[in-house]
């Protein structure tokens, strides 16, 4: 018997309530077999005598072990590693002139959503901090059916045609002979493929940028990537691109930090999402669209159907429609996050496809993959995948069918059931595909309008600040230095040189190579065996684009200096200065940040006023890479801190990763043993950016200074030139 417990909390919605019929609560219940027989002894198998063999008759043990043996399902072929949460979309700006989709027209309805974030290449248990694209897949449970927006945190893709997707994924996944490396693109097969695919160059710029090592899932943009269509009630279509802009701004970690987080907490992003929602700090995005009238389809330098291109926001601004909020963690990871099945082909009236050949191929792939992953065409009946709109059709049976379709009729047309379930007219909400006129030859080719591969790659690179450019150069050096085949490195330098010579030369210097004088012609790129490759040569760079601030994370206009949910480590020794800890802690918490006490041991330490204070972490069990800033109060036990290598490492890493560091009076000797001490030793009068040392004079402004610096996310001016 199930408890019919109400869904707890106010953060419920129509989908969360609908899931209640599948929730199971064991509290106060007897343990039973799958078939309801109460179990008397769950610890021992049935045996012939105390020391005798187990009996085949033991239906209880057989059932338990059989179920266990079959617990696993195939992981996703891509995006295997991920995390999800429930929430809602709230419309503030209805757009009936562009789309008839109900959830984009009716401001009185909050649409339930389930969002799954993911990395692409790694296995289910791989680190969250891999350099990789992040998936950003949203299931909108609308009243007219499910709309899935299956996007990424990067607005372009590696390839232009779905035909190349298996090749791309085979190249990036661990190499097939030894299954190395895990969750990393830094290996020969990936760069071999990329170096022969000039169309990937724009995406490579993004994937080598800090966008590929986000600080948090909550601090990433989301993009639908392809151009889709909106269709209004009059049947008029408008091209549309989907955008999600995070309320907390778009932020990343630095590469050295990513490497260390992978060791310290491979669940860093998963934990961050979970903890933020549990603590009521709900992740939020503005949902916006770029709209292009059908008549303007050909007015751009690039093809709207080419998924390796953005529409710069300076050309078409993003119109905000409303906000997306995540406010509830799943009850069960497997049931919800693992079994959720997304599909770009799940659309509702008012949203339709463009002819982007990458999108068109995806429309096949996603249902197909669920059949092998979830095992049956009935995957839509799995609770998380169930629509909240009425669902009736003549599809029947199959493995694990849940629905009990009543009646003798499972066909259409029929007269025995009055023709039901009946077709819906357009006015009744029936989906009618956009009446696009198509007159064409059947050809297996790539449009010539898809052959400008370098201009937007160059636009992206030149829109970055110097720090961000340096990070791209370092990432390329890192990745290509892991490639063993020199010819691949050289081919990549040839391609990079077509994007930006300075970039190519700096990467080449890190590899001890020269940029090749003329790039090698890629083999059969985008053409069939009989085609003339000359005709399909990539177009040379057209450098007419103005830099776009929307592409930089550092100067991105949507970034605010909020410190909400940022984590600050307080490195406290025994007898720490309680007054200074409390003053900063209270001020941080008032602004929604989290203060964590890190001490010499687990349990509690005692402050200078005698208060026993619980430590959240120890110097040994944590690291500054898990925090956004550190503060070191004075302590009676300062000597022990000064002798502790973990404490010194904490401070050095925080300094190297450009984080804010605050230190109390009395910490001079400790700091003198760190990078900070070395820097200050050179010049006693120097102040180090983002290092705020408390003095008698600045007592009044210390806390506000610390908070202001934390709001900058990183103190980039501290970063030493990594690139010579
Ligand atoms: Fe894909 C999963 C995003 C191209 C085939 N894809 C998947 C997920 C995301 C994306 C976010 C994970 C969904 C989840 O959390 O369950 N994929 C993209 C984007 C693409 C893209 C933004 C290009 C713009 N994908 C793409 C192509 C193909 C696929 C061209 C095949 C031709 N993708 C799949 C898949 C997956 C998938 C194999 C694996 C698991 C799944 O579908 O449900 O079918």
UniProtKB/TrEMBL annotation:
Region called Disordered, residue ranges: 1-20, 28-49, 515-538
**Active site per the UniProt annotation:** 79, 152
The catalytic activity, as recorded, is: 2 H2O2 = O2 + 2 H2O
Secretion signal span? none
Q: Where is the composition biased (Polar residues)?
A: 1-14
Q: Which GO terms describe its molecular function?
A: catalase activity; heme binding; metal ion binding
Residues bound to heme: 76, 116, 165, 362, 366, 373
List the GO cellular component terms.
cytosol
InterPro entries assigned to the protein according to its UniProt record, in alphabetical order: Catalase, Catalase_AS, Catalase_clade2, Catalase_clade2_helical, Catalase_core, Catalase_haem_BS, Catalase_immune_responsive, Catalase_large_C
Q: Name one Pfam family in it.
A: Catalase-rel
Q: Which cofactor does it need?
A: heme
One GO biological process term: hydrogen peroxide catabolic process
EC number(s) from the headed UniProt entry? 1.11.1.6
Q: Where is this cross-link: 3'-histidyl-3-tyrosine (His-Tyr)?
A: 343-366
Question: Basic and acidic residues bias located where?
Answer: 35-49
Enzyme class, top EC level, equals oxidoreductase
Query: Could you tell me which residue ranges the Catalase core domain spans?
Result: 32-420
Q: Which family does it belong to?
A: Belongs to the catalase family. HPII subfamily.
Relate the protein's function as given in its record.
Decomposes hydrogen peroxide into water and oxygen; serves to protect cells from the toxic effects of hydrogen peroxide.
Name-wise, this protein is Catalase
Q: Which organism is it from?
A: Flavobacterium subsaxonicum WB 4.1-42 = DSM 21790
């Amino acid at each position: 018997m199930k408890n019919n417990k109400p869904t707890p909390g106010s953060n419920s919605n129509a989908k969360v309530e609908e899931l209640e019929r599948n929730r199971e609560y064991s509290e106060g219940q007897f343990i039973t077999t799958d078939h309801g027989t109460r179990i008397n002894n769950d610890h021992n198998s049935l045996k012939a005598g105390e020391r005798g063999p187990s009996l085949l008759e033991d239906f209880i043990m057989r059932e338990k072990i059989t179920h266990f043996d079959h617990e696993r399902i195939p992981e996703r072929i891509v995006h295997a590693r991920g995390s999800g949460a429930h929430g809602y979309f709230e419309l503030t700006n209805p757009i009936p002139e562009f789309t008839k989709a109900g959830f984009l027209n009716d401001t009185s309805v909050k649409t339930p959503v389930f969002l799954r974030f993911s990395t692409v290449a790694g296995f289910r248990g791989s680190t969250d901090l891999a350099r990789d694209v992040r998936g950003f897949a949203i299931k909108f449970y609308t009243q007219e059916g499910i709309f899935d927006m299956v996007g990424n945190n990067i607005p372009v893709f590696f390839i232009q045609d779905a035909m190349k997707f298996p090749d791309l994924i085979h190249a990036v996944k661990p190499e097939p002979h030894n299954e190395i490396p895990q969750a990393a693109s830094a290996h020969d097969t990936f760069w071999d493929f990329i170096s022969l695919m000039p169309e990937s160059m724009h995406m490579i710029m993004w994937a080598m940028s800090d966008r590929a090592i986000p600080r948090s899932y909550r601090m990433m943009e989301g993009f639908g990537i392809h151009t889709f269509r909106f269709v209004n009630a009059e049947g008029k279509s408008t091209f549309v691109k989907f955008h999600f802009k995070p309320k907390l701004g778009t932020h990343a970690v630095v590469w050295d930090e990513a490497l260390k987080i992978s060791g310290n907490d491979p669940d860093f992003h998963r934990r961050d999402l979970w903890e933020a929602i549990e603590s009521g700090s709900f992740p939020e995005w503005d949902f916006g669209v770029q709209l292009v009238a059908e008549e303007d389809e050909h007015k751009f330098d690039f093809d709207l159907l080419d998924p390796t291109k953005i529409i710069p926001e300076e050309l078409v601004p993003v119109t905000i429609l409303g906000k997306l909020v995540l406010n509830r963690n799943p009850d069960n990871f497997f049931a919800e996050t693992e079994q959720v099945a997304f599909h770009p082909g799940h659309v509702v009236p008012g949203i339709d496809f463009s002819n982007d050949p990458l999108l068109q191929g995806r429309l096949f792939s996603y249902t197909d993959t669920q059949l092998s992953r979830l095992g049956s065409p009935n995957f839509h009946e799995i609770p998380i995948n169930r629509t909240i709109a009425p669902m009736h059709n003549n599809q029947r049976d199959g493995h694990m069918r849940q629905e009990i379709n009543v009646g003798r009729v499972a066909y259409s047309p029929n007269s025995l059931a009055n023709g039901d379930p009946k077709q819906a007219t357009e006015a009744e909400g029936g989906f009618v595909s956009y009446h696009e006129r198509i007159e064409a030859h059947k050809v297996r080719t790539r449009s010539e309008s898809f052959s400008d591969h370098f201009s937007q790659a160059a636009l992206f690179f030149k829109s970055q600040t110097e720090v961000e450019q340096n990070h791209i150069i370092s990432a390329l050096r890192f990745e290509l230095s892991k490639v063993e085949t020199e010819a691949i490195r050289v081919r990549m330098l040839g391609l990079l040189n077509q994007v930006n010579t300075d970039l190519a030369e700096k990467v080449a210097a890190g590899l001890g190579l020269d940029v090749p004088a003329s790039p090698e012609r890629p083999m059969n790129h985008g053409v069939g065996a009989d085609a003339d490759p000359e005709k399909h040569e990539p177009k040379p760079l057209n450098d007419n684009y103005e830099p776009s601030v929307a592409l930089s994370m550092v100067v991105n206009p949507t970034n605010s200096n909020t410190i909400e949910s940022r984590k600050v480590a307080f490195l406290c020794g025994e007898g720490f200065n309680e007054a200074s800890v409390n003053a900063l802690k209270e001020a941080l918490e008032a602004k929604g940040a989290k203060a964590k006490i890190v001490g010499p041991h687990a349990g509690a330490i005692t402050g200078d006023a005698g208060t026993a204070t619980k430590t959240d972490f120890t110097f040994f069990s944590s690291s500054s890479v898990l925090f956004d800033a550190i503060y070191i109060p004075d302590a009676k036990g300062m000597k022990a801190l000064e002798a502790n290598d973990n404490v010194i490492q904490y401070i050095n890493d925080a300094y190297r990763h450009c984080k804010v560091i605050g230190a109390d009076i009395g910490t001079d000797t400790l700091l003198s043993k760190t990078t900070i001490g070395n820097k200050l030793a050179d010049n006693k009068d120097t102040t180090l950016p983002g290092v705020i040392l408390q003095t008698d004079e600045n007592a009044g402004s210390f806390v506000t200074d610390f908070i202001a610096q934390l709001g900058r996310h990183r103190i980039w001016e501290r970063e030493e030139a990594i690139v010579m």
